Amino acid sequence: MQRSQAQTRFEISTKDQLSVTDITAQVHAAVPDDLTGIITVFVEHTTAAIAVNEAEKRLQGDLETALNELIDDTGWRHNEIDGNADSHIRAMLIGASATIPIEDGELATGTWQSVLLIECDGPRTRTVSVTATPAVNSHT
Amino acid sequence: MQRSQAQTRFEISTKDQLSVTDITAQVHAAVPDDLTGIITVFVEHTTAAIAVNEAEKRLQGDLETALNELIDDTGWRHNEIDGNADSHIRAMLIGASATIPIEDGELATGTWQSVLLIECDGPRTRTVSVTATPAVNSHT
Amino acid sequence: MQRSQAQTRFEISTKDQLSVTDITAQVHAAVPDDLTGIITVFVEHTTAAIAVNEAEKRLQGDLETALNELIDDTGWRHNEIDGNADSHIRAMLIGASATIPIEDGELATGTWQSVLLIECDGPRTRTVSVTATPAVNSHT
């Protein structure tokens, strides 16, 4: 049996400027076997985000399209610095983390839920941390 | 006094395709009496979301209107599968969970804050989990 | 060494109707010195939000512009009550809290990440709480 770990990190390489990557397997591998509680999945960057939704290929493309259409890619003042204001704003709309309930070492998610890394300024290598927190009376 | 419970679940039936339901009472009932810490309110579906905001009827309608206007309901590739790509995208913008501070068994929220289930593909029966996590030095 | 505290609060005065304020220093001051785990940063209001992103002045203005453009400021039914439906909707898109990993008393964030208070209906004085939760096996 794997030892409980407070905090682990993994890296993900993304392939396109705007892309959705299923990281459920990597997140699951970071969950202590005996944990009942929550995990916080956190991306250590300002132009990427974490969501919990369905990892269906066409939907992943649809989310990319939607984020592109919601936020223009020109006219921003931050672009005087590094030309990626749109990526920051898209990432803020989704959020840098997801907090997910865990039951007996398994993600307590619904049938269609996966953990998704939303890349908004790729391709890049991104660092994701998973912090495991026990629930009350869980005797972990 | 109620025993502390690590993790509880309840079900909510929603009435319309896009609708906002106040679930504060159900969430509060799932909070251990003596908890100081946080709870994670998590909806186990990919076309519904959790928000913390005001449970005012006209505002609830306004949020429905805003989500409708932000995301079109046609032109998505995922619709080849089950016709609800817009619902997924709206749910991702709000998020599948809320993490809320708890003080002595009560939601440590502001005067106007309620916990809201945002239904994006109803009417449906939705499962919501509440996981209770103690703060440091809280002797729960 | 500072004693671990389960839950602390601080106040922030904002300057404009829509504005972004870097609150990283205040959040950091509320983190117990020896904590490894997570903190939940929560704003106790329905027209303000918390994000984790870059605290660059031009980007802060860009986010204000983007939230203004995404959500119209007229035509809402809640405005019959207090004229700020747009502020509520903008706040819901960002979210009332952020959950952030902590390692040995420090925010385990990336180089460019700061904690931001997104004011959507200012200028106002806002109350923010920070709740500290230990990770498994962290012996806090």
Automatic annotation (TrEMBL), chains A, B, C:
Similarity comment text for this entry: Belongs to the UPF0047 family.
Protein name per the record: UPF0047 family protein
Natural source organism: Haloquadratum walsbyi (strain DSM 16790 / HBSQ001)
Superkingdom of origin organism: Archaea
NCBIfam families in UniProt: TIGR00149_YjbQ
Entries under InterPro entries matching the protein: UPF0047_YjbQ-like (IPR001602), YjbQ-like_sf (IPR035917)
Signal sequence, start to end: none
Coiled-coil parts of chain: none
Xref: SUPFAM superfamilies: YjbQ-like
